[in-house]
Write a structure and sequence with these properties.
Blueprint lengths: L2 E3 L5 E7 L4 E5 L21 E5 L22 H11 L4 E6 L2 H11 L4 E7 L12 H9 L7 H12 L5 H8 L9 H12 L3 H7 L7 H8 L6 E6 L7 H8 L5 E6 L6 H4 L1 H12 L3 E6 L2 E8 L6 E5 L10 H7 L4 E5 L15 H14 L5 E6 L1 H12 L4 E7 L25 H12 L3 H5 L8 E5 L8 H10 L4 E4 L6 H4 L1 H11 L3
């Protein structure tokens, strides 16, 4: 494993996982080796993880001076790693107790931090303490679990000073996870093996923290900050996570549903989507009715806006070629619908939900009057929005949009393929059900779409009935119908022809 030497001569080890821009990851504990972080639920698919073994843990050397385990003194180790990696600025992720170290590093070296991700972070460095009341509230959330009574009794002994954390550890460990299944048990064992008790005892020694000065320094941190909290966690609770985020000029909070202290174990996909979206400089997020929607934006800020909405199974990147060309004259917003890409996968899906997310997205970003281009399922959401609220849309483009006739033959149950999926499979189940028997009012209300509309058909190679598409265009007042012989994926297969059609319609 690679190593480097710190300012006091201690040789520290780190592990590399994945490819891409480096993300320096600090394990918690305090003073745990990095093994328990694993690949952070698959985050290594998006970034190269640089997983540090703190001094005296894992493959790192024990220091000559045990006092150097103190949190404040390890700031120099993080800085030495940055220099060793040849990075001008760090993307820094810290879990649990290492949140304190990351906060101290950001306070001392704010110009060296490009982004800061704090996962279930410790907050002593800024004077936010986890109280017994916090623990009691979090414990009460798990009252329906089969291990709850035994664990609660163990906590009572701990709070009364009748037992140590090590003595009751087996009983209280399930509270650290969103679900106490086999994966959580394996991870708990790995986390226990990563501990270094003698180093942990020195970590919080007197002098480690000066909260007032740290808070003052963090007020000047210009880097973006993401604070991730598990809904079931006690340290920090979601409320304390919000309190921590409020200390920074530019911070957001993500509370992961159903998660405890190790959110990448409880729901790897949800964790990775949230963090990957935050770390990607091309991706932004907005929360609509509790659902985080990721999107990509291109083009001059003052240019007229156009919103691109992908089809089922796609995401905002499907529009890259189109968006790049439109960005010459438009401010282009390409959205990941719920259940797709880097947006939240809440588990509840319908064409109405996609419509409402699109409405909220355009409203929150101030995009009233924007041109709206939707493909397939995204076009269906756009059409429903235009039926309800035509004043929100300037021009409407419906590319290969299902016209809401019952499918013949209907689609039956479909099993998900093996491996990691690009969408929540529940999207397939829910939308197939609606396509099999759509609300007849949806197609009756095509006449309510009063905005200028272009319907783009893909010709005989498409799975969409082209006669039904022509009927849909005839029902929308003044709509134009253009056929581009490309099949269902018109903007992907024939982007030049698609852009020409948009330009002739006044989009682009």
């Amino acid at each position: 494993m690679p190593t480097f030497t710190t300012s006091d001569g201690t040789r520290l080890a780190y592990h590399l996982k994945g490819e891409g821009e480096p993300l320096v990851c600090l394990p918690g504990g305090p003073m745990h080796a990095a093994d328990y972080l694993q690949d952070l639920g698959g985050l290594a698919d998006h970034r190269e993880l640089v997983l540090l073994d703190p001094r005296g843990t894992g493959g790192s050397q024990m220091p000559n001076d045990p006092a150097s385990y103190r949190c404040e003194r390890q700031v120099a180790d993080v800085e030495a790693l940055r220099v060793h990696l040849g990075l001008d600025r760090l993307d820094l992720l810290a879990h649990s107790a290492a949140g304190n170290l990351a906060l101290l590093y950001a306070a001392r070296h704010p110009h060296r931090v490009r982004s800061l991700t704090l996962v279930a972070a410790g907050m002593r460095a800024v004077g936010i303490e986890v109280t017994e009341d916090d623990w009691r509230s979090a414990v009460a959330l798990r009252a329906g679990e089969p291990w709850y009574e035994r664990g609660r009794a163990a906590f009572e002994r701990l709070w009364k000073g009748e037992a140590t954390r090590r003595e009751v550890g087996e009983a209280i460990t399930p509270f650290a996870y969103g679900r106490w299944d086999e994966a959580a048990r394996r991870h708990a064992a790995l986390t226990e093996a990563a501990a270094t008790p003698e180093a942990a005892r020195a970590h919080y020694a007197d002098g480690a923290f000066d909260p007032a000065s740290t808070v003052a320094a963090l007020r000047g941190l210009t880097a973006p900050v993401l604070v991730v909290a598990g809904a079931y966690d006690s340290g920090p609770t979601p409320a304390h996570a919000a309190e921590l985020a409020a200390l920074f000029p530019c911070a957001e909070v993500a509370v992961q549903r159903g998660a405890g202290h190790f959110p990448w174990v409880d729901d790897p996909g949800a964790f990775v989507r949230t963090v990957a979206a935050f770390l990607d400089p091309d991706v932004r997020s907005v929360v609509v009715d509790g659902v985080r929607l990721a999107y990509r934006v291109r083009g001059p800020e003052a240019a007229p806006p156009v919103v691109l909405v992908h089809g089922r199974g796609g995401d905002s990147r499907d529009w890259d070629v189109i968006a790049e060309r439109l960005a010459a004259t438009r401010r282009v917003y390409a959205l990941d619908l719920r259940g797709h890409g880097l947006s939240d996968w809440p588990g509840t899906y319908s064409f109405e939900a996609f419509r409402d997310d699109l409405r909220g997205f355009m409203t929150q970003l101030g995009l009233r009057g924007a041109e709206l281009v939707g493909h397939s399922m995204g076009g269906a959401a756009a059409a429903l929005l235009a039926e309800d609220e035509p004043g929100l849309i300037g021009r409407l483009v419906l590319e290969e949009t299902p016209p809401f006739f019952p499918l013949d033959p209907p689609r039956g149950p479909v099993e998900p393929p093996e491996g990691r999926l690009a969408l929540d499979w529940a999207v397939i189940t829910a939308t197939n059900t609606q396509l099999n028997d759509p609300d007849p009012a949806w197609r009756r209300r095509f006449a309510d779409i009063t905005v200028p509309t272009l319907v783009v058909a893909g010709g005989p190679k498409s799975q969409i009935d082209q006669k039904q598409l022509a009927w849909m265009a005839s029902r929308i007042p003044g709509a134009r119908l253009v056929t581009i012989d490309a099949g269902h994926l018109v903007h992907t297969e024939r982007p030049d022809a698609f852009l020409d059609a948009l330009a002739a319609f006044g989009v682009g």
